[in-house]
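Q: For a teaching session next week I want to show students how multiple molecules come together into a single three-dimensional assembly. I've collected the sequence lines for a complex. Could you give me the predicted structure tokens for the whole thing so I can convert them for display?
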Amino acid sequence: MMTLIIGGSGSGKSAYAEDYMISLSEEKKKYYIATMQVFDEEEQKKIEKHRVLRSGKNFCTIEQFIGIQNAVRKMEAGEKTALLECMSNLIANEMFLGAMPKKEEVVTQKIVKGIEMLRKELSHLVIVSNNVFEDGTVYDETTMEYIRAIGKINEKLAIMADEVIEVVVGIPVPIKKRQA
Amino acid sequence: MKLVIGGYAQGKLNYVLGKYDVETIKIYNGELPENIEEQRETIVINHFQNWVKRKIACDDCPEKEIFEFVEKYPDCVIISDEVGNGIVPIEAFEREYRERTGRILVELAKKAEEVERVICGIGQKIK
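A: Of course. Below is the structure for the complete assembly, covering every listed component.
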């Protein structure tokens, strides 16, 4: 089973995704795959905030900044679920961590393949992604390419997913419903 | 309290106007009314996000003020732009504005008896 959860900044998508994970994981081992790399104090604070939000919820955290399929190697055998947060950070890392920014197609292909490998190992994979598409701003070409990559990957993940949920002011709005 | 959200220029105010008798409401643009002696009309706060932005710029606490306000006026309607659906801004203030506005709207949505999202002038009831 795979679920894609999207939302904007401050939409409450993380809190929703975590509660959702808890409701579906039962006694299974729950992993939290963190994709964000810390570069400054503000990001450190953000990560702390997320840690506090997760504390007491029994998540086992794996840091995986690139090559998402490698997260599998850090997991124990047996039935397990994972929450990946956030797709847009993973895409930024894949795109910009090298000497030269990588092309949208290259990044898309790599990530989709990685997610396919990851989901096979899990009874349920929940992916949190970002809605960055509605501020009407035309950015420089590199940023536009990044936005296109997020859009394309969201599209592909939505096809793979059994359900897609948008979180709006903390409220889940179904975009693609699970088939009975 | 009712919360109406949506993108810029989606016809949110018109949508609200269509649901009320204009005589029975009073619209405040980007501000919260102060010292209302006798409340006769339904209070409609339009452009709520602008008020939040101004409060943050003045180092005030919009969270405290608005949560107290909706306790005091539980029949009000709050209309706000959704501002979080974009690339995270480079400027620290803009980042803070988006994040705090989003969080305030999440809290208001929890308190609201009804939440509607307006797209192309059409309201979707999401709570």
